[in-house]
């Protein structure tokens, strides 16, 4: 019998964020969203799809609780069709679903939003997180999977299954302008680490 001992080395190489994702003046971004999508109110933003692991049930439930406690924002779900969700009647008028938005328009949505929400239970990377950070938008995201590794100190991490925690985090962040600005600055700095040049260099190096 011949026994072979095989050793494997695992290399982690992050993806890069496209250059179109950068801060746009909020007034300009909000005007664009209003004119092209008739979204006039300030809003929380989600970008992704409606797969169960994206945990939209918790997001919508937490949003509903926050609304009952005085939240004035709306919720915009990009990449999601209304037919894929069960939206409670009490917040149906406060949630906008957009099944498709051209990629070139996404920076406007990120820049126009107040907070980017990402409560996914599992991700292999989470590109929308980096896109949102690159646009300078505060993030509330899951404390699970690879998400803390990607977000670092540029967002607030929460238990994605605790609707009360998510709701209170939304409300507290909206009352803390200083923290929002700080997270915005941290996000832009953090996103600058995710470049395609770095991805190529590290891949070639291996």
How would you describe what is shown here?
The chain has helices at 26-37, 56-68, 106-112, 127-134, 147-151, 163-174, 177-191, 196-205, and strands at 43-47, 74-78, 95-98, 115-118, 139-142, 155-158. With 206 residues, the chain is of the alpha/beta class. It has one domain (26-205): Glycogen Phosphorylase B (Rossmann fold, 3-Layer(aba) Sandwich). A six-stranded parallel β-sheet has the order 3-2-1-4-5-6, with helices on both faces. Helix 2 (56-68) links the parallel strand 1 (43-47) and strand 2.
Domain count, please report it: 1
* CATH structural class: Alpha Beta
Helix/sheet category:
alpha/beta
The biggest beta sheet reads: 6 strands, parallel
Got a strand count?
Answer: 6
Name given to the CATH architecture: 3-Layer(aba) Sandwich
What is the count of DSSP helices, taking H or I runs of 4+ residues?
A: 8
Helix content: 25-40%
**Low-confidence segments:** none
CATH topology: Rossmann fold
Tell me, briefly, the overall form.
Answer: globular
pLDDT averaged over residues? 94
Radius of gyration of CA atoms, rounded to a whole number: 18 Å
What is the string of SSEs from the N terminus onward?
A: HEHEEHEHEHEHHH
**CATH evolutionary superfamily:** Glycogen Phosphorylase B
In percent terms, what proportion of residues is strand?
5-15%
Brief write-up:
This protein has one domain (26-205): Rossmann fold (3-Layer(aba) Sandwich). It has helices at residues 26-37, 56-68, 106-112, 127-134, 147-151, 163-174, 177-191, 196-205, and strands spanning 43-47, 74-78, 95-98, 115-118, 139-142, 155-158.
